[in-house]
UniProtKB/TrEMBL annotation:
It comes from Ideonella lacteola. The keyword Membrane does not apply. Keywords: DNA-binding, Transcription, Transcription regulation. The keyword DNA-binding applies. PANTHER family: HTH-TYPE TRANSCRIPTIONAL REGULATOR LMRA, TRANSCRIPTIONAL REGULATORY PROTEIN. Residues 9-69 form the HTH tetR-type domain. Residues 32-51 bind DNA. It holds the Pfam family TetR_N. It comes from the Bacteria. This is Helix-turn-helix domain-containing protein.
Length: 202
């Protein structure tokens, strides 16, 4: 059965969105082009007009997820030049807002990277790039107020905490796991930033 898609989405965008949802729920290997076409509400034979292969569709999904995530992490125009806490809190709010989906399907970014590492090694770097991009974002934020080594450890810690929360939430089918861990992450963030006076808003 096809999804109900906003009229503003093009056919290509519907295919990418449908593929992203199916890859997150069922995995890349277990999802067929026909299933993506059905979910997007188009004929299977028409998919080739937009994507020559399933790998091409995967590339489009990875790029769309990366672009969307990075856009969500950018400050609003009115807040350009915001402080480290505000920047990191955008990620925490994004994770909290996804708690229900994480409890049902796990983290789509982490799950895709894990699957590619196990079954599709040639695409692992692309999929893992989503996670590494998040790590780089956090590292860059923390490095604004602390030495590079501390910034790296903080970035690793926070990203590992959030990924672990997604895994445990899916195991329990409990969005509350994510919400509680985001609360703990916020407390940890304030504690860490309090150690570095340079974390004051610039």
């Amino acid at each position: 059965m096809s999804e109900s898609w906003p009229e503003t989405l093009t056919v290509r965008e519907r295919l990418v969105e449908a593929a992203a949802q199916l890859f997150a729920r069922r995995g890349f290997a277990s999802t067929s082009i026909g299933e993506v076409a059905q979910a997007a509400g188009i004929l299977k034979g028409n998919v080739a007009y937009y994507f020559k292969s399933k790998d091409d569709l995967l590339t489009a999904v990875i790029h769309a997820q990366r672009d969307r995530l990075m856009a969500e992490l950018q400050p609003p125009a009115a807040e350009a030049g915001d402080d480290v806490r505000s920047a990191v809190m955008r990620l925490l709010r994004q994770v909290r807002g996804s708690a229900a989906d994480l409890a049902l399907h796990g983290c789509p970014v982490g799950s895709l990277a894990g699957e590619m590492g196990r079954t599709h090694a040639a695409r692992h770097a692309d999929a893992a790039g989503l996670l590494l991009g998040l790590e780089t974002f956090l590292h860059q934020q923390f490095e604004r107020v602390m030495p590079a080594g501390d910034a790296r450890r903080c970035a690793e810690h926070l990203l590992a905490l959030l990924q672990g929360a997604a895994v445990l939430a899916q195991a329990h089918r409990d969005a509350g796991v994510v919400e509680r861990q985001v609360d703990q992450a916020e407390v940890w963030l304030d504690t860490v930033l309090a150690r570095f006076p340079a974390s004051a808003k610039r």
